[in-house]
Amino acid sequence: MNLSSLSKLPILLKPFLLSLFLSMLFLAFLSPHHRLKSAFQNIRNPPSNDNTDAGLRIRPGYSSYNAYIERQLNKTLNPKLRKIWTTRDWDRKVSVFAHFFRSLKQRNLLFNDSKALSIGARVGQEVAAMKLVGVSNSVGIDLVPYPPLVMKGDFHAQPFENQTFDFEFSNVFDHALYPWKFVVEIERTLKPGGVCVLHVALSRRADKYSANDLYSVEPLVELFKESKLVEVRKVDGFGLDTEVVFRKKERRIIS
Fold first, then answer.
1. Would you call 125 exposed, middle or buried from its count of C-beta atoms within 10 A (0-12, 13-18, 19+)?
2. Where are the beta strands (DSSP E) in the chain?
3. What is the pLDDT, as a whole number, of residue 66?
4. How far is CA 210 from CA 61, 164, 251, in A?
């Protein structure tokens, strides 16, 4: 309806139709903003599940996502820690990670031709260990890059295309402020049939930089909606005591 046609209408209908027209314009403007706000709220506050609530708790104290990132960077950028990670700790950690990855290869969960990702890799000991055992196509992500082993990336929003990797490893699940987003990104970037291995702490609380506390494996099973649990076993991994393995489900093609 244009202004010329509006002028031809009976005078009593004009205010009603004008009001209706303006209301429709307002709703059209509001709708995208409302959807965007709802989507953001769903990331921060996913649907509640009793098992997840009981076995996984987010630590309070972060006023914003930027405050969370700043706290994580306080550890990652600490010059004393980075010197230790790249000197005194390097050989020891590479050796222990290589032991873990050799075991995964023996159990047919990791292969030399796997395209592999280490999530929260800091200075890249895990990546160096994967290359040491023959997995040459491997890389890490962290908030602070450490070329050539580690590129910059936030595990809440991985900088990769869908279905990129055959294998993903992480021992920093406890640092995820939004564990559900952490898992969603793993399942997004894993190929169907791909394997994810997490090292987590169940028998003791994680360090002061942790953003969540995990009390059982059940919350992980709830979070990995597109994957099946393969195995759970005890490990001794720098304060982390449990290895949890998931495999992303293959999509069935219905003819």
1. buried
2. 56-58, 116-119, 138-142, 150-152, 165-170, 190-200, 212-214, 227-237, 240-248
3. 95
4. 12, 28, 34
Among the listed residues 129, 102, 133, 134, the one whose alpha carbon sits nearest the alpha carbon of residue 118? 129
Give residue for tokens 């987590």.
200
Token representation of residue 175:
């640092």
- What distance in Å separates the CA atoms of residue 149 and residue 156, rounded to the nearest whole number? 20
The amino acid at residue 186 is I
- Identify the band that residue 53 occupies on the pLDDT scale cut at 50, 70 and 90: low
User: Which two three-digit tokens encode residue 118?
Assistant: 């280490």
In sequence order, the β-bridge partners of residue 243 are 199, 233
Separation CA 172–CA 240 (nearest Å): 10
Residue pair 194/248 in contact by the 8 Å Cβ criterion = yes
- Give yes or no for residue 21 having a pLDDT over 70: no
For residue 7, what are its two tokens? 């002028």
CB atoms within 10 A of CB 34: 10
Mean pLDDT computed over 164-174: 97
For residues 177 and 60, give the distance between their C-alpha atoms in angstroms, rounded to a whole number: 10
| Range 139-152 average pLDDT | 97
Distance of CA 21 to the CA centre of its chain: 44
Predicted TM-score (pTM) of this structure: 0.80
